[in-house]
Design a protein that fits this description.
With 493 residues, this protein is of the alpha/beta class. The chain is 44% helix and 24% strand. The two termini are 36 Å apart.
């Protein structure tokens, strides 16, 4: 049981291989478009965060004046103690120094890396007044200096290191970046991050600016390929599975229990679909009155395919005319002058404007006249519209006889009889099987037989399989019967 299902699944996958290949290529093309957008978006998000955080940090530096309300006139113990305490409690500055015109340069002696030279450098820097940011390299690493003017003639200067600024200003560890990044204050670079030694003649450059702060990220040309690989690693396998699943789902949606329209039409050419004929007899005399044409499909690997599957699929796609033509072009029974051939057609086929253009020529080609044809009307939907009734009347006028098939099971039944008078009524076999059961259907069968007598419309009872059923129907006055008791459907040799 598992092996046929697996084989069927593999067969479906092979059928969908071209569609799957197209979907995979479409996915790659889509990724090729999305990867640059994704890279640009994520880079922009990173830079926006860096700019916002940098602006926040620099704002904190400027706000130093709010945390230094006192003005000092001497570099005494009180001032030195305040410098140490402020540095210990600051999350930004490592050391502080106080400068004024009265006391000059004042700093704590313990590990303070701010020098008078830094103050002189700050005063000479053109970026003034009040706020100055510079960078210098010391034995302990790279330091960043900031100086804030508290009031005219009073300044406080602090320092911080690269790691502190990196942790605060950047959203993630810059060492993870293959890119080269730079933060600027008033167009002057103050923080480099990422791969600062990177050189690439083909690079992507992204810049964000907010006030005096700007951030730039330079990506190598290979970063786009890395982004595409990243996308493929995440969505590659799901997309590959979807590339096969979607075509298979679509084919299944357009199929009927795994059966496809193209399969049926190809089977015409291979002769796998063929007609069989079941006799319709006069049960009183044993004479064969006609033959009903039925379709059979013997698949070479799947075996017998039930007619209700492939006929329903053809009806869904309005391809029943092709089936009828194919069956009529096969071997036909040799009809006596009094015998007829019964064909199953739907109301949609009969109401079509092209009926005469395809059915009549095929019949003429096979040497059949309309008088030798009984058209059995099969329809699951109610009979509607005056045009349909007019088409049926026109067929009768052309010499065809019309039979209402499977009476008692469809929508049309009595409503049909109220609009149109058929030449025959064929009672469904489910009522025949109810003979002798005493059930509701047995009672309904008697009512339908009486209706046929009263309306003088000949009845054909289908599904007669036993002598008891045939004898019961003879006693009720039914002459025409069809079923295994009189003959099974068979091919014409």
């Amino acid at each position: 049981m598992l092996l046929p299902k697996l084989r069927s699944l593999c067969h479906e996958a092979l059928r969908c291989s071209w569609d799957a290949l197209l979907l995979m290529l479409l996915g790659l093309a889509l990724l090729a478009l999305l990867a640059p957008l994704d890279l640009s978006y994520r880079t922009g998000q990173y830079l926006d965060f860096a700019v916002d955080r940098s602006a926040y940090v620099l704002k904190r530096m400027e706000n130093t004046r709010e945390r230094w309300p006192d003005r000092f006139t001497a570099c005494d113990a009180e001032l030195l103690d305040k410098l140490l305490v402020r540095a210990q409690h600051s999350s930004l500055a490592n050391d502080y120094a106080y400068i004024s015109d009265e006391i000059g340069f004042c700093r704590a002696a313990n590990n303070n890396e701010i020098t008078p030279y830094d103050y002189q450098l700050a005063l000479s820097n053109p970026i003034k007044p009040g706020f100055y940011l510079a960078r210098k390299t010391t034995l302990s690493g790279e330091l960043y200096l900031f100086m804030v003017e508290l009031s005219p003639g009073h300044y406080v200067m602090g320092n911080t290191n690269r790691q502190t600024l990196t942790d605060i200003m950047l959203p993630s560890d810059p060492a993870r970046f293959m890119a080269r990044g730079e933060l600027r204050y008033r167009k002057q670079p103050f923080l480099l991050f990422g791969n600062t030694d990177m050189t690439d003649p083909m690079e992507y450059r992204y810049i964000r600016t907010k006030g005096p702060i700007s951030a730039e990220l330079v990506l190598p040309s290979g970063q786009l390929g890395n982004t595409l690989k990243s996308w493929l690693s995440v969505v590659g396998v799901p997309w590959l599975a979807m590339s096969f699943a979607l075509p298979m789902w679509w084919r299944r949606k357009r199929s009927l229990q795994g059966l496809y329209l193209n399969d049926i039409e190809l089977c015409y050419q291979r002769g796998e679909i063929y007609p069989v004929y079941q006799p319709i007899v006069d049960a009183l005399t044993g004479e064969v009155l006609g033959y009903e044409q039925l379709a059979r499909w013997q698949h070479p690997s799947e075996g017998f395919v039930p007619p209700n599957l492939f006929v329903t699929l053809l009806e869904r796609h309005q391809r029943l005319n092709g089936l009828t033509t194919h069956l009529l072009n096969q071997a036909l029974p040799l009809l006596q002058p009094s015998q007829y051939l019964s064909l199953n057609l739907t109301l949609d086929q009969l109401a079509g404007q092209d009926l005469e253009s395809w059915l009549v020529p095929v019949l003429k080609q096979r040497g059949l006249s309309p008088a030798q044809i009984v058209i059995e009307i099969t329809e699951r939907d109610p009979l509607q519209g005056a045009d349909t009734v007019a088409s049926l009347v026109r067929l009768q006028q052309a010499g065809f006889r019309l039979a209402l098939d499977d009476f008692g099971t469809g929508h049309n039944d009595l409503g049909f009889l109220g609009q149109f008078r058929p030449d025959l009524i064929k009672i469904d076999k489910s009522y025949t099987q109810a003979i002798g059961t005493g059930g509701l259907k047995a009672t309904m069968l008697e009512a339908m037989i009486q209706m046929g007598v009263d309306s003088r419309i000949p009845l054909v009872v289908e599904g007669v399989e036993t002598e008891a059923q045939a004898e019961y129907l003879r006693q009720k006055g039914v002459a025409m019967m069809q079923g295994y008791f009189f003959g099974r459907p068979a091919r014409c040799e």
